[in-house]
Amino acid sequence: MAGWAGAELWALNPLRTVWLALAAAFLLALLLQLAPAGLLPSCALFQDLIRYGKTKLSGPRRPAVCRAFDVPKRYFSHFYVISVLWNGFLLWFLSQSLFLGAPFPDWLHALLRTLGATQFRALELESKASQMLVGELALSTFLVLVFVWVHSLRRLFECFYISIFSNAVIHIVQYCFGLVYYVLVGLTVLSQVPMEDKNVYVLGKNLLLQARWFHILGMMMFFWSSAHQYKCHVILSNLRRNKKGVIVHCQHRIPFGDWFEYVSSANYLAELMIYISMAVTFGFHNLTWWLVVTYVFFSQALSAFFNHTFYKSTFVSYPKHRKAFLPFLF
């Protein structure tokens, strides 16, 4: 098992390749924005693809051909509809397998194998230590998939009942990427579950016995980060409501309170912390998920940089001590 673990830790499978490529692409985009102005790509399409919402207003002038591919930013809710349905679907299959011993469907098993899911052999599971490690991984996968589903359900609720969307837009490519994103996230989580052929190795009656300190820590971090993100979205929503809760405008105002006292994009910071909590739940050593976290870090940092630039250029009185994404750092 130790030999297998060492080999698998650094193996580059299709899923890891995708997340590594996405992380590298957003890192490059961020570095280009931080570079001197003369080095920035002049391509309007490039700028249009990395900006969305209000940050398109502070970017280069958008030609008509770019505006032809706009879709409303409020379509963000579609991402979470897809995620709740798809990841709920995956969670159902995982629960059936964990608690009832039902095998994964052929199509799902084949898809997970193609993406790089690990298959265990009976000989690799003979020792008690190996069984314990595999049991921990099964519980981690179950918890993280629950977290992804709960996160998506909360965000869907916020889109319908909390957030107030203006007439801001996103590019159709960004919209399509968002639809695919949560499908890929769910498959990434499910691909981490230990399987022996089409069955998950650990049965549900033993699942809770596999709980470790990092499962508890990860769960606490997830709900803590989620609570802060919810509060940040409420703060942003209240900027467009009067004291009675009635929507009075869709203009942008300076947010105050909670993590907004430290960074311009507190909701993005909370998003990063949510994904880090899932990495903790996986026991800190899951390379695949850390690549997901790396992608989230650079993509949210890029968006936060644009938000920060917009706020500073729009409001003369914007707090000078406030950073873009990471308190006291960036």
Provide a compact summary of the structure.
This protein has 330 residues and is mainly α.
What's the topology here?
Elements: H1 2-10, H2 14-34, H3 44-50, H4 64-67, E1 70-72, H5 76-100, H6 106-115, H7 128-161, E2 169-171, H8 172-190, E3 195-196, E4 199-200, H9 213-238, H10 266-281, H11 287-314
Antiparallel strand pairs: 1-2, 3-4
Helix pairs in contact: 2-11, 5-7, 5-8, 7-8, 7-9, 9-10, 10-11
Keywords:
two-stranded antiparallel ribbon, 4 strands, about 325 residues, 11 helices, mainly alpha
Walkthrough of the structure:
The protein has 330 residues and is mainly α. 60% of the residues lie in helices and 3% in strands. The chain has a two-stranded antiparallel sheet. The N terminus is likely disordered.
Number of strands: 4
**Computed CA radius of gyration, to the nearest angstrom:** 21 Å
Shape: globular
Q: Count the helices. How many?
A: 11
Uncertain spans = 1-7
CA-CA gap between termini? 41 Å
Order of helices and strands: HHHHEHHHEHEEHHH
Structural class: mainly alpha
Mean pLDDT, nearest integer?
Answer: 88
- Report on the biggest sheet: 2 strands, antiparallel
Strand percent estimate: under 5%
Which strand order do you get reading across the main beta sheet? 1-2
Helicity range: 55-70%
